[in-house]
């Protein structure tokens, strides 16, 4: 069943072109050119979203927005402004519009295609699936010329699909040349995927960046189901959450910290919490973790995984602390998007003094990016700001020392350093841990209790429980990791 959208705009030509485009995207459209008819439509029907022009007459756009806030407070509303001067001359403000209930604000001129992005950004997975034009079987394969930068890559073994394919799926022939092997709405064909994997030795599939949100939505839901199952191995659960987190961080870095992006991040963090909370064999996966992808997105996931596993060892741990820290870890390096690109390709040890000083500003730059976002709490912001502060005062940006550093931030500092050791030196987790513990200067960067609880991350929790039940004079923390 197609999602219904109410279009309200005094410009008949724009109404027609927007309506035509959205119908092609499989929305059901109701269009009106005045506020009175808009309110009547809202009284008589329910809509997935309302696209409302600020300059609507016969009940103004603001009057209609007030009507919606009073009678349909959960209604999604895209407020369209005829030009930037509406804001510049003080006729209204983004803050006022959002207080009145506008979900999104779009300032003309913009491409009609932008409406698709605005609407899809607020679709639940159920909305997405109901809005797909389904067909039985598979469509013919089609070759296309599309720039590589417009695609997101996923390993073929890590791709899962609903019965109806949620988006177009491609394989790459060569640079900028692809074959569409599954079309949105097709009945999913594992056989077609396996043919390319087994007969053509294809390792990766591709989908448009614009479909990345759908990928995250579906795989987030699937990850939640896998984590809840006692039959699924811990390694499979970790792999699924990693894939979701990787693509989510890519989406956040490209789309910015929009409300719908942050909300989706909370779902990722909930899955991370459930993983560290419920998976008794997680320690085995952490000891044997081998996939050392050096990308920034995988780095953020690994920092999140090890940080939350450390927090789980503390008596004061809670869902709130674990999810807040997971969110901070996913975005701990977001400030780097404001640094020169050539700096991002350098390791810290290869930077000159000027580059190093610039690099050390990225925690502050990260907080600047998320500062005005009301959906991100202060704990997350403080962890991001302090994630490079060291217990011995050698960190940055402020050189804080000891108890002046948030414990959660110092945990992230350790996890961040540890993941760099793993990836940069190509070491498995036990070897990376040994290297860290043998370097006293390194160890002094962290609160000793954090180091002690980090070691426990790699130990069977049942063994820890047994040791904790021994008399205090015979209780020993096993620091040997093999």
From TrEMBL:
Gene3D superfamilies xref list: 3.40.50.2300, Hypothetical protein af1432
Residue span, Response regulatory domain: 4-123
SUPFAM superfamilies listed in its UniProt record: CheY-like, HD-domain/PDEase-like
Domain of life, source organism: Bacteria
InterPro entries: CheY-like_superfamily, Cyclic_di-GMP/3'3'-cGAMP_PDE, HD/PDEase_dom, HD_GYP_dom, Sig_transdc_resp-reg_receiver
Segments forming domain HD-GYP: 274-470
SMART domains: HDc
Biological process, per Gene Ontology: phosphorelay signal transduction system
Protein name: Uncharacterized protein
Origin species: Halobacteriovorax marinus
């Amino acid at each position: 069943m197609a999602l219904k959208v109410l279009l309200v705009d005094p410009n008949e030509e724009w109404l027609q072109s927007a309506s035509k485009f959205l119908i092609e995207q499989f929305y059901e459209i109701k269009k009106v050119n005045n506020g009175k008819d808009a309110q009547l439509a809202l009284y008589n029907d329910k809509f997935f979203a309302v696209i409302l022009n600020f300059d609507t007459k016969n009940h103004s756009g603001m009057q209609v927005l007030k009507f919606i806030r009073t009678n349909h407070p959960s209604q999604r509303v895209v407020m369209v402004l005829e030009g930037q001067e509406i804001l510049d001359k003080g006729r209204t403000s983004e803050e006022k519009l959002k207080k009145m209930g506008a979900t999104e604000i779009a300032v003309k001129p913009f491409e009609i295609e932008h409406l698709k992005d605005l609407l899809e950004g607020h679709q639940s997975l159920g909305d997405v699936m109901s809005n797909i034009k389904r067909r039985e079987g598979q469509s013919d394969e089609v070759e296309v010329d599309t720039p590589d930068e417009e695609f997101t890559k996923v390993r073929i073994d890590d791709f899962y699909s609903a019965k109806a394919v949620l988006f177009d799926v491609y394989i790459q022939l060569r640079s900028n040349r692809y074959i569409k092997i599954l079309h949105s709405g097709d009945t999913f064909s594992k056989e077609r995927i396996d043919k390319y994997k087994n007969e053509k030795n294809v390792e990766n599939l591709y989908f448009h960046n614009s479909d990345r949100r759908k990928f995250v939505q579906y795989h987030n839901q699937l990850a939640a189901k896998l984590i809840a199952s006692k039959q699924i191995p811990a390694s499979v659960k970790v792999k699924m959450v990693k894939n979701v987190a990787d693509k989510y961080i890519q989406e956040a870095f490209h789309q910015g910290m929009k409300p719908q992006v942050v909300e989706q991040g909370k779902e990722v963090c909930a899955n991370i919490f459930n993983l560290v909370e419920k998976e008794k064999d997680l320690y085995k996966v952490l000891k044997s973790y081998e996939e050392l992808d050096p990308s920034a997105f995988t780095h953020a996931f690994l920092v999140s995984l090890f940080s939350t596993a450390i927090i789980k060892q503390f008596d004061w741990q809670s869902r709130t602390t674990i999810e807040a820290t997971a969110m901070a870890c996913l975005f701990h390096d977001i400030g780097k998007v404001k640094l020169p690109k050539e700096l991002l390709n350098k390791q810290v040890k290869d930077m000159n003094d000027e580059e190093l000083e610039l690099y050390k500003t990225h925690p502050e730059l990260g907080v600047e990016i998320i500062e005005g976002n009301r959906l991100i709490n202060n704990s997350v912001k403080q962890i991001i700001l302090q994630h490079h502060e060291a217990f011995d005062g050698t960190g940055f940006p402020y050189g804080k020392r000891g108890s002046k550093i948030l414990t959660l931030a110092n945990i992230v500092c350790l996890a961040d350093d540890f993941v760099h050791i793993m990836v940069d030196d190509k070491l498995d987790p036990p070897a990376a841990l040994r290297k860290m513990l043998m370097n006293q200067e390194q160890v002094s960067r962290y609160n000793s209790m954090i180091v002690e609880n980090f070691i426990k991350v790699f130990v069977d929790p049942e063994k820890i429980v047994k040791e904790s039940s021994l008399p205090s004079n015979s209780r020993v923390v096993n620091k040997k990791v093999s």
